[in-house]
Write a structure and sequence with these properties.
The chain has about 80 residues and is an all-beta fold. About 0% of the residues lie in helices and about 60% in strands. It contains no helices and 9 strands. Strands 3, 4, 5, 7, 8 and 9 form a 6-stranded antiparallel sheet that branches. A 3-stranded antiparallel sheet has the order 1-2-6, with no helix packed on it. The radius of gyration is 12 Å and the shape is globular.
Length: about 80
C-alpha cells in the first residue's frame, strides 16, 4: 500500500501484492466512513504491473487501510495514516 502526501486537500492510494500474484480485489477504508471497492482481477507484483489506484481521496487526518481479498479471504490489511 502507498498513501501519497496530501496535496490540494486530496491524496491518492495505490495497492498491489507485496509478493507473487492473486486473483481478487482491493478495498480501501479510511476516516469519515471512506470506502472504495476495486475491480476483481489478477494482480501481480512488479514495477511495471498494474496497481489498484484511487485518486481524489479527501485528505483527512486518520488511518487509511487497504484489504486484499483472494476468493473471499482477506490476505492483508496494511494501513498508513495522515497525522
Amino acid at each position: 500500500m502507498y498513501l501519497s502526501t496530501p496535496r490540494n486537500g486530496t491524496v491518492y492510494v495505490q495497492a498491489y501484492p507485496q509478493h507473487g500474484s492473486f486473483y481478487g480485489n482491493f478495498d480501501l477504508t479510511g476516516p469519515n466512513g471512506l470506502y472504495r471497492h476495486g475491480p476483481t482481477q489478477t494482480w501481480t507484483n512488479g514495477a511495471f504491473q498494474p496497481k489498484q489506484e484511487w485518486t481524489g481521496i479527501p485528505a483527512v487526518v486518520g488511518k487509511y487501510c487497504v484489504s486484499g481479498w483472494d476468493h473471499g479471504t482477506r490476505i492483508g490489511l496494511p494501513c498508513e495514516s495522515i497525522l
